[in-house]
């Protein structure tokens, strides 16, 4: 179980309508469960949207990507059927909260076949893998990677005494 933000607040500026505050917030389910504690919030001052319609789905996906870090795990196996997107269930684990559905988000398979190298004796063909997983009820979203881009001119509101530049 990891720590992830309970809320995401994204803000942007539209130079065509500078008085309109392009500010949107997305909250996780159960964020009010903190009681008097302040939930952890991520603030993005440059939300990368210019209209409200584009902001809502963008912010939802960004917040879901952060939410994926709440419950994560990793494991080792020899099952060839495991692949990203596969959902599996743990049953009868000694630590009860782990008895749940989990979704694989990354896996690395390793195989070994000594007979192909001309070795007669020893170990037979083996397969092993290492995988990582998240909560099986969550929608997996890839982590957001900032791309360097030039969106155009940066706008600013200059304040100060009149006549000075």
From TrEMBL:
Lineage of source species: Bacteria, Pseudomonadati, Pseudomonadota, Gammaproteobacteria, Enterobacterales
Organism of provenance: Xenorhabdus bovienii (Xenorhabdus nematophila subsp. bovienii)
Alphabetized Pfam families for the sequence: Phage_GPD
Transmembrane segment boundaries: none
Name of protein: Type VI secretion system tip protein VgrG
């Amino acid at each position: 179980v990891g720590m992830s933000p309970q809320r995401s607040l994204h803000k942007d500026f539209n130079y065509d309508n500078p008085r309109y505050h392009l500010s949107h917030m997305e909250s996780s389910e159960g964020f009010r469960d903190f009681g008097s504690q302040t939930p952890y919030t991520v603030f993005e001052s440059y939300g990368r949207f210019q209209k409200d319609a584009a902001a809502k789905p963008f912010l939802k996906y960004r917040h879901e990507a952060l939410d994926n870090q709440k419950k994560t795990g990793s494991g080792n196996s020899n099952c060839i059927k495991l692949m990203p997107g596969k959902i599996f269930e743990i049953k009868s684990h000694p630590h009860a909260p782990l008895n749940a559905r989990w979704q694989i988000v990354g896996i690395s398979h390793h195989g070994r076949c000594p007979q192909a190298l001309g070795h007669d004796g020893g170990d037979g063909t083996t397969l092993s893998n290492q995988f990582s997983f998240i909560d099986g009820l969550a929608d997996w979203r890839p982590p957001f990677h900032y791309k360097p881009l030039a969106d155009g001119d940066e706008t600013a509101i200059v304040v100060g005494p009149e006549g000075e530049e």
